[in-house]
Amino acid sequence: MGDDAATIEDYYHEGRTFAPSAEFVASAVVNDPAIYEQAEADFEGFWADQARSLVSWEEPFHTTLEWDLPYAKWFVGGKLNVSYNCLDRHVEAGLGDRVAYYFEGEPGDTQTITYSELLSEVSRFANALKRLGVNSGDRVCIYMPMIPRTVIAMLACARIGAVHSVIFGGFSPDSIADRINDAAAVVVITADGGYRRGVPLMLKPNVDEALKSTNTVRSVVVADRCGGNVDMQSGRDHWWDELVSAESDDCPPVFVDSEHLLFLLYTSGTTASPKGIMHTTGGYLTQVAWTYRAVFDLRAESDVYWCAADVGWVTGHSYIVYGPLCNGATSVIYEGTPDTPREQDRSGDPGTWAKDRLWSIIERYGVTQLYTAPTAIRTFMKWGETWPDAHDLSSLRLLGTVGEPINPEAWMWYHEHIGAQRCPIVDTWWQTETGGQMLTPLPGITVTKPGSVCAALPGIGVELVDDDGNVVTEGGGYLTLTTPWPGMLRGIWGDPQRYEDTYWSRYEGRYFAGDGAKIDSDGYLWILGRTDDVMNVSGHRISTSEVESALVDHEAVVEAAVVGAIDETTGQAIVGYVILRGDVESSDALRGEIRAHVSKKLGAIARPRVVIVVPDLPKTRSGKIMRRLLRDVVEGRELGDTTTLADEDVVDEIRDRAESDDSDDE
Ligand code: WT7
Question: Which of 121, 165, 410, 500 is deepest in the core (most CB within 10 A)?
C-alpha cells in the first residue's frame, strides 16, 4: 500500500482458510502438487500431454505451438472433429446408454438423453443443415432457449465444420441483426419461444424483426417449444421436426484442422460495441476438457454435474456443452428461473414464487457438482437459507463459482448452507476470451481462502504488473497473462487491429485482461474487478470489489455495488448502493452504521460518502453490475447506452432512492 498511486491498493484482509478433507484428496482426479512445477518447467509439453490423452485425433499434430505474438497456433498438423470427440467415441467405447443430459423444462417437463440418442439427433440435424446448403466454414446463428435442441444445434454445426455463433435468448432484434451482419451468417436456428417465469417468452418474432435489416440469411430453422404459434415465411422458415424427419441418423463427421474456427461468441460486456471472439478447434477442446476434468474433479461414471449458466454465454459453451461431453459426463440442463413455479398456498391459489427450484433439482437428480455465479448466490442469500434447508443436498461434493468476484461472506454462505462445510469451492476466473478456466483452486490440492481465486492452473502463466509494466509480487496490480494457452481467442472476427489494440498493446508481450487483482503475502490471487471501475479517492486507487465485500460483510447487507462519483475535494467519492436483507428496514442510523463498518474493515479512506439503499441493482443479462449506469445516476447525468441492461425499470427506482438517501446522509 503505498505512496505512489501507480497500482490498485489493497485493504481487505481475509484470514480464514479451508483445506480439502483427507478423503477428498485421496480420491481426487488431481492431487499431486508436483503438477504445478512440472507444467511450469514445460507448459507446451503439459498441454501436449493433455491433448493426446483427452482428445481423439484423426491425424496427430506434429507441432504443439507456433507462437507469433499475439497469434498462436496450437497442435499444428492435427485433424479432429469436436462432435466426434463429444459423442461418437463414447458410443464406440460402449457408453451409448450413459445419460448425457437430464433436461428439465421450466413448466416441469423432463427428458433424459443418452449419448447414443444425442449422436443420432446431432447427425440428423447435421444432415438437415447440409441440405440447407451449409458448408464447412459457414457461420450459423443460434438464438434459442435452454433446451436440448440448442446443444444439438451447436454440435451439428461442429460436426460439419460450420461455425456457430450463439446469441443469448435475452437479446433484442437489433443485437441479433448486428451479430448476423458482422458474421454474415447464412442460417439462423431459433425456437418459437422458451419458458421464463411461467410464461412463454417468444423468440421467433425477434428473429423476424432482425432479418428485416440483414441480407445474408437464407434459411431459418424453428424448434417448436411453446406450441408453435408464430409466423413462418414460406421458402425461408422451416420447422425443426419436419426438417429432420426425412434425414438419416448417419452423418460422417468432417475432420478439420486443429486451427479451424469452431465458434464465434460476441462479447459486449459493460461497455463498447460487441466483438466476435474467435475460438478454434484443437486447443479450445483440449483446455476445456482438461479443466473440466481437473477443476470439477470429474468421476464420469457416477457424477451428475450441473452448470446453472445459460448456453448463450461462454460458460455454457465450455462447461455445459464441450467440457462435459468431451469427458463423457452426465449433466443437468434447466430451462428457467430459480423462482418458478409459484408456491400453491393451502386454498390452491397461486401464492408467491417458490424459491427452491435449484435445491429441488439438486435433490431429485442427485447433483454432485454445482457451478453458478456469485450474483445468483447473493440472491439465494437474500431469499434466506430456509429454501435450501428444506432439501436434501447431501449428493453435492463440489461447488464452483464464476463471473465476478465472490465476496467472502457470499463464499461462506455457499460453503455453509449449500456445501454443508463439506464441499471444496472452486472460484474460477476466466473470460470469453480465454475460452476456459485460468485461475482457480484445484480441489484436491489447494487450501482455499474465501473470495480468492487462489492461483493459476498448471500450464497457465500469470503476473500482476504496475502502470509501468513492472512485476508486482505483493499487493495490487493489473492482471496479465504471460504465456499463450490452448483455449485463447485467436482474434476478433474481421478486426485483427482491434484484437491487437484491446488485448496486447498495453504491456509489451503480455495479454492484459482488463482486470485488477492483488497478490497476498502467501501468493494467493484476488480479483479486484475491471480496472475501468477502480476509484481514485484522494490519490488512492481503491477497488470496487473490496468495498463491496466490506459492505456485504455487514449483517444487514446482502448485495452491494460501489462506484466513484466526482467529488470536488477528493477527486472521487465512494458511493455504495446496497440491497438489505429481506426483513431489515432502512434508516439513517443503519446507513451510518454500514458506512462505519466499511471503515472498520478497510480503513477510513474506503468509507463510502453515502450509502443508498436500493431494491435492486442494474445488471447486464449475464448478471454483471453496470457500474457505469450507477455513476450516471449519482452524478445526475442522462443515462448512457442501456441496451445491455437486463431490466430497465431498475434504474428509475434507483434514481428515486438516490435522491432521498443522498440528501439525508450528507
Ligand atoms: C470477466 C469476464 C468466465 C465466464 C463468464 C464471464 C470477471 C470472471 C471471475 C471470478 C472475479 C471474475 C472478470 C473477467 N470474472 N470470473 N472468478 N472472479 N471476476 O465471462 O463475460 O467474458 O467476463 O468476468 O472481470 O474479466 P465474460
Answer: 410
- In the structure grid, which three cell numbers stand for residue 272, read together? 463498447
Name the DSSP class of 416.
I
Quote the CA–CA distance of 176 and 666 in Å, as a whole number.
45
Name which of 369, 430, 382 is nearest 403 in CA terms.
Answer: 430
Residue 194 near residue 145 (C-beta atoms within 8 A): yes
Q: For residue 55, with 0-12 CB atoms within 10 Å meaning exposed, 13-18 middle and 19 or more buried, which class applies?
A: buried
> Distances from the Cα of 184 to the Cαs of 137, 154, 238, 260, in angstroms?
11, 17, 20, 18
Nearest to 265 by CA among 141, 155, 165: 165
CA-nearest residue for atom 19, ligand 1, is 404
* pLDDT in the model for residue 652: 79
Q: Return the DSSP state at 321.
A: I
pTM tops 0.85:
yes
- 208 C-alpha to ligand 1 centroid (Å): 32
- CA-439 nearest atom, ligand 1: 17
Render the burial of 561-587: b for 16+ CB within 10 Å, e for the rest.
bbbbbeeeebebbbbbbbbbeeeeebe
- Report which of 518, 420, 525 is spatially closest to residue 476, judged by C-alpha positions: 518
Contacts of 590 (CB under 8 A, 6+ apart): 556, 580, 584
Taking the centre of ligand 1 as the mean of its atom positions, its distance from the CA of residue 272, in whole angstroms, is 17
Q: CATH homologous superfamily of domain 554-664? A: ANL, C-terminal domain (3.30.300.30)
CB-CB neighbours of 112 under 10 Å = 11
Asked if 162 and 129 count as a contact pair (C-beta separation under 8 A), the reply is: yes
**12 half-sphere exposure, CB direction, 13 A CA radius:** 33
The residue to which cell 432457449 is assigned: 145
Cα–Cα distance measured from residue 584 to residue 590, given in angstroms and rounded to the nearest whole number: 10
DSSP 8-class letter at 470:
P
CA distance 484 to 567: 42
- Tell the residue number behind the cell numbers 440447407, with chain if given: 132
The pick from 277, 377, 527 for probing ligand 1's pocket by mutation, whose C-beta has the most ligand atoms within 8 angstroms, reads 527
Distances (CA, A) of 618 to 101, 268, 378, 586, 622: 33, 16, 15, 20, 11
Ligand 1 center from residue 111 Cα (angstroms): 31
3-state helix, strand, coil in the chain (%, to 5): 35, 25, 40
Whether residue 450 contacts residue 246, with contact meaning beta carbons closer than 8 Å, is answered with: no
Q: How far is the CA of 405 from the centre of ligand 1 (A)?
A: 8
229-243 pLDDT, tens per residue? 999 999 999 999 999
Task: Kindly give the number of the ligand 1 atom that is closest to the alpha carbon of 401.
Answer: 17
DSSP helix/strand/coil, 661: helix
Kindly give the distance from the C-alpha atom of residue 301 to the centroid of ligand 1, in angstroms, as a whole number: 30
Residues in the chain, pLDDT under 50 = 1-5, 270, 663-666
pLDDT of residue 643: 67
Q: Candidates 270, 287, 399, 402: which one to mutate for ligand 1, based on the most atoms within 8 Å of Cβ?
A: 402
Burial class of residue 620 (count of CB atoms within 10 Å of its CB; 0-12, 13-18, 19+): middle
Buried b (16+ CB within 10 A) or exposed e, 225-237: bbeeebeeeeeeb
Sheet holding 139-143, edge to edge: 237-239, 219-223, 187-191, 139-143, 163-166, 261-267, 275-280, 491-492
Provide the pLDDT for residue 5.
47
Contact predicate 542/8, CB 8 Å: yes
- C-alpha–C-alpha distance, residues 62 and 55, integer Å: 15
